[in-house]
Design goal:
It comes from Flavobacterium alkalisoli. The protein is α/β, with parallel strands linked by helices and 292 residues long. Helix content is 43%, strand content 18%. The strands form three sheets. The protein has a seven-stranded parallel β-sheet, with helices on both faces.
Length: 292
C-alpha cells in the first residue's frame, strides 16, 4: 500500500512509519522541516517537505495514496490554540477531499466527544465533526489516552519541590498511553481498507495518579514521592511562573478539571474501558528515569 503519514518524525509518526515500512508498505512522511528530509530517507521513506498550512501541498502529498494518517501539529501557538487546531483541521479536510483519498486515520483524543470542558481536546472534537461530514471517505478516529510523556513536564517540580501533582485527585482513574502503542493501533487501522467509520481507543494502562507517583518515584529513587492535588489557581500560577502563557495554563487547567470530574473519560468508560496496549506504566517508568 501507498501510505502518507503526517507528523514528521514525531513521537507517534516515526514509530508508525517504521512499523509500516517493516511490513513492506510504500510510505511518504510529511514534514515542515527540510532538515528532516535526510532522516526520513534513512528510514527508507519518501519525504514530502512543505507547510501544513498549505492546502495545495497537502493535497499533492495525499494524492495517489491508498490511505493517510493525519494529525494536527502539537504546538499551535500560545493563544487561540483550539481555534488554530480547528483551522489546521480545515486545511487537512480540504486536502483529503481534493486528493480523493478514501481511507484516513486521524489521531484524536479521549474526550473528543465533548465540545468543551476538555481544554485543547475541544479542537479535536471540532475536527472529528468536520471529517464526519466528508462523504466517500472511511475514517477511523484513534482516541488516545493521556500521553505518558506529559509526565516529563513534572520533572522540574519533582526536582525542586519533591512532589508531583495536578488539579485532580490522587484516586481518579486515568487512561494513559505510550506513543508506540498508538502507532500499533494506527498500523492495524490504516492497513484495513475495508473498515467503515469508527472510533477506536488507544490505551496502554489505567492507573490512579497516586499509583503514577509511586511507580515513577520508585524508578527515580524517590519511592515516597507524593501526589498533590493543586487548586486551579495554584496550577495556573505554577505554569505561568514556569513560563507558559496564561492562555495555555488556563487551557490545561480546564483539561485537568475534565479529568478530575470524569467528563473527559466518560465515553471511554461507558463504551470501551479497556487498556489493550503493551507498554504499561512500569515500563514507561524506565524511560522516565532516564529522562530524569
Amino acid at each position: 500500500m501507498k501510505i502518507t503519514v503526517t507528523g514528521s518524525l514525531g513521537n507517534v509518526a516515526k514509530p508508525l512509519a517504521e512499523s509500516l515500512i517493516a511490513k513492506g508498505h510504500d510510505v511518504t512522511i510529511v514534514s515542515s522541516s527540510a532538515d528532516r528530509k535526510q532522516d526520513i530517507e534513512k528510514l527508507e521513506a519518501k519525504a514530502a517537505v512543505g507547510s501544513v498550512n498549505d492546502t495545495a501541498f497537502l493535497t499533492n502529498a495525499f494524492t495517489g495514496a491508498d490511505a493517510v494518517f493525519v494529525m494536527t501539529p502539537p504546538n499551535l501557538g500560545g493563544t487561540n490554540v483550539v481555534a488554530n487546531t480547528t483551522e489546521a483541521g480545515k486545511k487537512l479536510a480540504q486536502a483529503i477531499k481534493d486528493s480523493g483519498v478514501k481511507r484516513v486515520v486521524m489521531l484524536s483524543s479521549i474526550g473528543a466527544d465533548k465540545p468543551s470542558g476538555n481544554g485543547p481536546i475541544a479542537g479535536l472534537h471540532n475536527i472529528e465533526n468536520m471529517y464526519n461530514k466528508i462523504s466517500g471517505v472511511n475514517f477511523t478516529f484513534v482516541r488516545a489516552g493521556f500521553f505518558y510523556y506529559n509526565f516529563f513536564n513534572d520533572i522540574p517540580l519533582i526536582k525542586n519541590a519533591g512532589i508531583t501533582g495536578a488539579n485532580y485527585a490522587a484516586d481518579i482513574k486515568m487512561a494513559m498511553v505510550h506513543p508506540r502503542d498508538i502507532a500499533a493501533v494506527v498500523t492495524e487501522e490504516i492497513t484495513d481498507l475495508n473498515s467503515t467509520n469508527k472510533i477506536r481507543y488507544a490505551i496502554s494502562d489505567i492507573r490512579t495518579p497516586q499509583e503514577v507517583a509511586a511507580v515513577l518515584g520508585s524508578a527515580i529513587g524517590k519511592p515516597e514521592l507524593p501526589w498533590v492535588q493543586f487548586t486551579d489557581e495554584q496550577l495556573i500560577e505554577g505554569m505561568t511562573q514556569a513560563g507558559l502563557p496564561l492562555d495555555i495554563a488556563e487551557m490545561y487547567t480546564d483539561m485537568g478539571r475534565g479529568l478530575g470530574n470524569g467528563h473527559i473519560q466518560e465515553h471511554f468508560n461507558t463504551t470501551d474501558g479497556k487498556a489493550t496496549g503493551k507498554i504499561k506504566l512500569e515500563e514507561f517508568a524506565k524511560e522516565f528515569a532516564l529522562k530524569f
